[in-house]
Amino acid sequence: MGATSGTNGATTEAAAKDGDRRLGRRALLIGGAAAAVGTAVLARDELSRLWWRLPGVEKPRVAGAVDFRGARWVAASPANYRRADRPDDYRIDRVVIHVTQGGYASAVKVFQDPAHGAAAHYIVRKDGRITQLIRELDVAFHAGNREYNERSVGIEHEGFVEDPSSFTDAMYTASARLTAAICGRYGIPVDREHVIGHVEVPGTDHTDPGRHWDWERYLGLVRRARA
Ligand SMILES: [Zn+2]
């Protein structure tokens, strides 16, 4: 955020050096498989998807990069999250499900507003399109509870808790794929203890996702997407 082209250049160089170091680590980790990958360029590409598995390595931040393939990147205001290095500094063991109480555009707008003080990592639209606003390695202010912010990934869903028509098939399917990928990435069990609603965060006065959110259906879709 706010990086000049000068600092970008420096970051790219640092990342390149880092990449070489990680290549060594990766070779150590998976042994002969690295040789089979072929060119260093291809290996580097693999690495960009594997970085979260390498403990103690500072993660590269590439402008516009997303953690979920197919998600569209729209940056939240830096005032609405805290830079971190998860899962190395904080273990991620929860996914928190939210409903925006409004449309997609207005949710994006408030997450970009530094005065709002809150934002989630992702928003899922009615049509199933997913937008990522905060990297998973950062702590988004979405749960209203510091410990839960630090340990979770927050997913907003466009719509209203009192309107069952908010929750479309496309939304359930897309969101379940996203949650399945997050659970896979961090080893989070797919159950109601670890995939929770905002309403279940200790100390919250929020009610989302509300009584119309079909948890049984959702967890079933997440499990199917995992398999
Ligand atoms: Zn919420």
Would you mind describing this structure in some detail?
With 227 residues, the chain is an alpha/beta fold. It folds into 2 domains: 5-53, no CATH class; 72-226, Peptidoglycan recognition protein-like (Lysozyme-like, 3-Layer(aba) Sandwich), CATH 3.40.80.10. Helices cover 38% and strands 11% of the residues. It is built from 7 helices and 8 strands. The protein has a 6-stranded mixed β-sheet with strand order 1-5-4-7-3-8, sandwiched between helices. A two-stranded antiparallel sheet has the order 2-6. Strand 4 (122-124) and strand 5 (130-132) form a beta hairpin. The protein is globular and about 35 Å long. The structure holds zinc ion (ZN).
Quick overview:
The protein is of the alpha/beta class. Helix content is 38%, strand content 11%.
Describe the secondary structure blueprint for this structure.
Blueprint: H1 5-30, H2 33-37, H3 40-50, E1 72-73, E2 81-82, E3 94-97, H4 104-111, E4 122-124, E5 130-132, E6 139-140, H5 146-151, E7 152-157, H6 169-186, E8 195-197, H7 215-226
Parallel strand pairs: 1-5, 3-7, 3-8, 4-7
Antiparallel strand pairs: 2-6, 4-5
Helix pairs in contact: 1-3, 6-7
Bound molecules: zinc ion.
The average pLDDT is 83
Q: Give the neighbour order of strands across the main sheet.
A: 1-5-4-7-3-8
CATH class of the largest domain: Alpha Beta
Rounded to an integer, what's the Rg over CA atoms? 18 Å
Instruction: Decide which structural class fits the backbone.
Output: alpha/beta
Number of helices: 7
Q: How many extended strands? A: 8
Distinct small-molecule ligands in the complex: zinc ion
Number of domains: 2
What's the N-to-C terminus distance?
36 Å
Sketch the topology as an H/E string, one letter per element.
Answer: HHHEEEHEEEHEHEH
Unreliable stretches covering 5 or more consecutive residues: 1-39, 48-56
The amount of helix comes to 25-40%
Mind telling me the CATH superfamily name of the largest domain?
A: Peptidoglycan recognition protein-like
Gross morphology: globular
Using the coordinates shown, work out and report the CATH topology of the largest domain. Lysozyme-like
- % residues in beta strands: 5-15%
User: In the CATH hierarchy, what is the architecture of the largest domain at level 2?
Assistant: 3-Layer(aba) Sandwich
Major beta sheet, specifics? 6 strands, mixed
